[in-house]
Amino acid sequence: MDASDSKRFCCVFCVKMVKSIPVIFILCILAWSYYAYVYHLCISALGGIASMEVKALYLTVYHIILVFFLWSYFKTIFTEPGGVPPKFRLPEEVFEEFNRIPIDLNRQNAVLRDFSENLPVMTFTNADEHFFSDIRYCDKCRVVKPDRSHHCSVCRKCVLKMDHHCPWVNNCVSYSNYKFFILFLAYGLLMCIYVVATTAEYVIKFWDVTSDVRISGGSEKIHIIFLFFIASMFSISLFSLFAYHIYLVSKNRTTLESFRPPKFSEGCDKNGFNLGCCRNIREVFGKEVILWPFPVDTSLGDGSSFPINKNIPEAQSLLSSDIYDQKSSIGFENSDTQLFTSILINDDSCSNTNVAKYQDLIEI
């Protein structure tokens, strides 16, 4: 390894360590809270507060929640953000034509439109009623962006259904791990509430001047009181974040879409992917309700194409078909769902071959 490679390796290692600081911080807080709860509350201090049966109950419930929290947290951290499928990447000859000098924006838009004819692309960079909207393109990855995907400057790639890049998990929250992230918030909130509820009795006795707990157990008191207040503060922050993301799930929106609504050919629509509350939840958690509490992959679809709200003009003009995909997000019950496979486009600049790219839409 020469000097330049060694320097590059050191720089990359330092950057990774800096990015990992929030995760290390959370794990350190968790390790200390485990020590404070298990040892100081349940083993050392709890003898004067509750019986052995209550002590065993406290420890059992705490460890169950802890296992689910760690499971969800590490799944969120180590699940690779979904990358753009190869079919969205410009072939070399198309890229050369796209990048040919002199640069002509109209020619580039035409190249992208021709290339995207058979791709399930429904959102665009513009929404002008006088011309076909520009195709979303990433010049860093050389790909046509699938619907709801964005380029992450931290991950250095386009990410499918990107919600945001979260420093607390050192990863992009996206299609591939959004369910795990929601469960991480849920179990983190549940753990904080449980710790607050089970330590409250000890904290109340500490403030009681007539209680023996106020007089005895110096270090134990400090650990448990700090644990109570830290869990209370984390409960407030986690509740607000969890409630916000539950709202987003119910509306089938990402954090980015809540600030910048997706643009369809007829204009922006923040409810463009809203299929109704129940179906929106299934999009993230899947059809098997029994698997919802577990951080396993049950999300519907492939992350690159999504059913859209029937109020979007593109969906209203589609013809019905009987195509059904078990894994796709369009695979709801046939009794109340239809899949659409073609669209009528009146713009003369668009070829009828655009039909194929609208095969993943449904009417709700």
From TrEMBL:
Transmembrane parts of this sequence: 21-50, 56-74, 180-204, 224-247
Family: Belongs to the DHHC palmitoyltransferase family.
Gene designation: LOC112680849
Keyword Transmembrane helix (UniProt): yes
UniProt keyword annotations, A-Z: Acyltransferase, Membrane, Transferase, Transmembrane, Transmembrane helix
Enzyme class: transferase
The reaction(s) this protein catalyses: L-cysteinyl-[protein] + hexadecanoyl-CoA = S-hexadecanoyl-L-cysteinyl-[protein] + CoA
Full protein name: Palmitoyltransferase
EC number: 2.3.1.225
Native source organism of the sequence: Sipha flava (yellow sugarcane aphid)
Membrane topology: Multi-pass membrane protein
